[in-house]
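Write out this protein's structure.
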Amino acid sequence: MVARILTDGLAEQLGGTFVSEHKPGATTTLAARHVARARPDGNTLLLGTNATFAQAPFALRNLGFDPDSDFAHITLLAESLYLLVANPRWRSFEELLQEAKRRPGQLSYGSWGVGSTAHLLMVDLLGRTGTEMLHVPYNGPAPALTETLAGRLDLMFSTLAPAKPHVQEGRLRALATPARERLPVMPDVPTLIELGQPDFLVSAWWSLSAPAGTPQPVLAVLEGASAAAFAKPAARTLMDNLGLVRPPQGAAAMRERITRDAALNRELMRRAGIELE
């Protein structure tokens, strides 16, 4: 959806055809390698993520690119808020936490892979609360959510969009969100800050980058066109429905976000015992 908003908006603002070419694999780094080696003329761009620039460098030995020097970062595009969701048998964060302390290692949580955001968020939360739980990684968010719905997992961190309908229909319980303020679409869900976890602020994000050496005037045009694309009423409505928000704009804000998230993920991966592969 983020790619669709971007490509449609760029085509409208700049003319011509913009194609979204999917290159999945290796925690988004195959796409990043492709763009890093492309001609720096503004015709090949990267829809990057927090995984690309702030997680993969600490998980993959042969990354194939330098997150800083191989790219001209343009701007952050959107970020997705997270929910800590549990099987409905758990009525609150406090209740689940008490049970986890009473039975160390007996409760289980899911993620979409070792070193994923869902995994690292739980590593952080368990460290903060002095609790132990069993990590069960899956190949994607959907199977982890399915297992939580079925009660075979106790809880997990999920982005808002896939969890929202299950919470609204009572199949999942939203315990908390790692946001600064309560989410407008779920005003009854407390923040982790409210629950005694100061500065617990995490979100997934998408960004726009070009190959290093792309001329500054080209970067400025792309930044302006992408901003116009996401400012359209239709785009804002779609983002609201998906639980997406607009982060601070511009290259400086993006680099600051990469630096902050990379430092956090480096430490969390160390604590989780994740080694370069």
